[in-house]
Amino acid sequence: MTYRLTAFLLLAGGLAAGVTGVATTAQQPAASASAYAISVVVPGQAGGSAGGVSAPGGGATSVGNGFVYPADGSIVSAGPLSSSASANAADGGASGAVTDVLGVSLFNGEITLDSAAGRARSSSSAADTTGSTVVNLLVAGQAVGATPNQRVALGDWGSLVTLEGATARTTGSTIDARATVTALRVTLTAEHGGLPAGSEILIGHAETASSVPAPEAAPATTTTATTTTATTPAAPATPPKPRPAVPPAQGKKKLPEAPEPNKDPVPKVRTAPTDISAPLSPAGFVFPVYGPSSFSDTYGAARAVVTWHHGTDIFAPLGAPILAVADGTVFSVGWNDIGGYRFWLRDRAGNQFYYAHLSAFSPLAVNGREVKAGQVIGFIGNTGDAQGTPYHLHFEIHPVALLPLGYDGVINPQQHLTAWRRLVDISFAAGRGWAPPVPAAASAPRPGAFLLGSTDISSASGLDPGSLERALVAPVSAESDGALIRSG
Question: Is the whole-model pTM more than 0.90?
């Protein structure tokens, strides 16, 4: 079953505008709701799903009689399924989505649960996922208490997250609200039980969104003051004595001042080196940092300002060139207090890439400029809220299929960065967390497959053209995988 994600971009604008600098407003009330019971996402394969419904402006229901994947149920087996979604733009944008799955068994009983429920509601007054549950979750026979956004390691082959959800409500010219939850998400980082690395199993997903015009403020009441003229001049008042300064409380920090409009620093522009030639992957992608660098998987880690880390930090020397990862258009070039010097790149398929914490831009960093993969757009730094940390590039991938989720429509860049460094491609459908499978009509890159032998290109560097030829004739060392990625 194929179904569409129906959340609106304008509803996620409150999250994205702080990063991209683009504000969005809704002129008319709008509401949407969608849900699915189970989705199995497999790179390069069709996968499977059950209980998918969406309601861009009305109501929808779905019932089922269980689900298995594949036909023998060795990977996923579940009992009766039920999903429902309803949205009403006229009634304060009220929308709700529910889904229930019973008797779930994954990988022939390695993971079991009695039931999973996804509940999402949003309206002009609130957004919440109250009522979402995972009951009696067992992992390898051990009980796991399901708490919101709890991550559990699955041996050396993957991880699961319980009650993965988020809510947002913003007020401006419109009141925008969004709620999304996935009761259980299992992600494979290595082959297991017949599924390849990058596969995901999502159970009990519900999401809603609404946008309604904000009520007009009542007109201010004006008061006319009455002035009385004294017949006798008053004696001059004695100037008050200055109050003694009160020392601040010990350990109390001063609140930050509100930013002034147009206070962005003047962009720094450097001439780009002319001797850079970065090899491209077969699909035309390139690793975003030129020269020695390192990175590790910090996607999803806690962050103070944006709640969780939406990308990967690539550490490199100050001033190392930063490259366009694909042919596309540069936009939102400039500064914000979190990302420092930053820009976005949109490739020809509509996928978007976010670069932050630059020390300077190249002359190509101009809004609307068309660039080629491998061209230098900026230079490594630690501006914005990264000041004082080691120099690095914060890099994010936002596939076109997830753009309706706003800033949270993001995937883990780890596998893609690793692949691009080895001149290999991975479909953007492989790492999704919030969304169902990519609709057939989407223009994002389709899943692909590749075959590597025991002597492969894992030891090759995308920054050294000669290393690819050497890797094809020299066996990989048994003591080391030859990868140039090291923990940062």
Answer: no
